[in-house]
Amino acid sequence: MDVVKLVETTVNGLGYELVDFERSGRGLLRVFIDKPEGILVDELPDGKQSIDAAVYVENVDYDRLEVFVAGIGQAAEKEADFLRFAGQQAQLKLRMPLAGRKNFVGVIGGVNDGILQLNVGWQSGGNRTVEFGQGAFSAKSVGASFKPTLR
Fold first, then answer.
1. Residue 1 neighbours by CB distance under 10 Å
2. Which domains does the chain have, with CATH numbers?
3. Which distant-in-sequence residues (6+ apart) come within 8 Å of 47 by Cβ?
4. According to the model, what pLDDT value does residue 28 have?
5. DSSP state, 108?
6. Given this model, what pLDDT does residue 70 score?
7. What pLDDT, in 10s, does the model give residues 8-65?
């Protein structure tokens, strides 16, 4: 079984959402989870224990498991991530320039037909929206590093 699917199924069963998953060559599994109302630190041991049991039963080769609450500074990659942060300020860094710029700060307008919309005119009272992607909502697909920021 695919490890990401296994972990996602496990955390979904606990009422959480898998926000990000990292696997290093040194046997580290790093899992970021969240839920709409937020996760209390006291809930993390239960989540870690359940994930640990699931990967053990499926004979996943790993040495260490780390489970974190996703939050500010966590990169968004899936359409659900962008939708969850709609209306919030975010920083978007592109690998390739768009309209002569690589860095954008604005308010996420959401995803419409697979195109990320970022309102960059909010500071001056304007309503200028920059659209990223062409039918692809992933930050990776538009060559971007995207992180929600505090207002």
1. 11
2. 3-69 (3.30.300.70), 79-148 (2.30.30)
3. 11, 14, 16, 31, 33, 39, 67
4. 93
5. E
6. 75
7. 999 999 999 888 888 988 889 999 888 877 788 888 888 999 999 999 999 999 999 9
- E strand segments, the chain: 17-23, 28-34, 64-69, 89-98, 101-112, 115-119, 129-132, 144-148
14's tokens: 């606990």
pTM: 0.59
**Rounded CA separation 91/104 (Å):** 6
DSSP codes joined into one string, 36-60: TT---GGGHHHHHHHHHHHHHHTT-
Outline where 1-151 has alpha helix (H). 3-13, 44-57, 79-84
